[in-house]
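Tokens help. Our protein:
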Amino acid sequence: MTVAQQLWTVGKSQPDACDPVFKWLREQGGITAGLAWERIRLAMEARQPRLALYLASFLPAGERVWVDRWYQQNRAAYRRLDRAQKWPDLEKSRQITSYGLRRLARSDPDRAWKFFAALDSHFSWSPDVQGSILREIALWSAVGIEVGTAQRMRAVPATYQDGNLLEWWVRYGLATENWAEVILVIARMPSDLKDDERWRYWDARARLAMGDPEYANKLLGELAQEANYYGFWLPTTWISLIGSVPRNRMLTRPLFRPCANSRVSGVLSSCAWPVSATGPGVNGRWPPGNLIMPV
């Protein structure tokens, strides 16, 4: 029976060949209300809302309202989650709301932050759920260069401030030219990430802007001796002039420009933007509305 239950509890429709097994499982009482809700949750997370509606028939009549509520919230792209303030504090309502906040953060982090502030005291989320919600809101706020990003980043518990989140926090600081924040956040990165040439370069840039050319010269001098992008771009003759060149003349050549639909102000190097084997950006995608293109 356990194997049949595992085969049934997935977030998609299974092949027709599985029907005899599932009929037997139902006749044996193997599809419990808890198992049915787990599959409903998986279906909604897999963006299969119609399957979730069908699976509601496996729940007791009094619990089917939660499937309808989740379905309606999904249809509204979770922009009506403020209605959750009227829901009782139950496991099902917490799952719907926490998932909805994470989804909403991708398209409207400001609204997600507003809803979270209103709902946080209403629901008894676990620290893990609360931390994951805050991280998602902060991450997508940084991607969208939202005004409240720094506040949201600071609200994320330290255990959820992983390397990826800290990188986006630095990118937000670069886009807003908050050099003090750039320095502080780079210092909090894990050592392997902090030692990456991208962040050593931007640490130096930030320190130049903050009036600390001595330490900046040390960082740039080290980079100039390495076989990487910065080693080729930072000639030793240029580095020797750092201490005497006026700050407003330093690093002003536009290496990269924002493309037409970008909200990025100023100049960002593509080396500060994430690139992976599957493509650039968060989860292998460019962040929407924030592309940067070579000049």
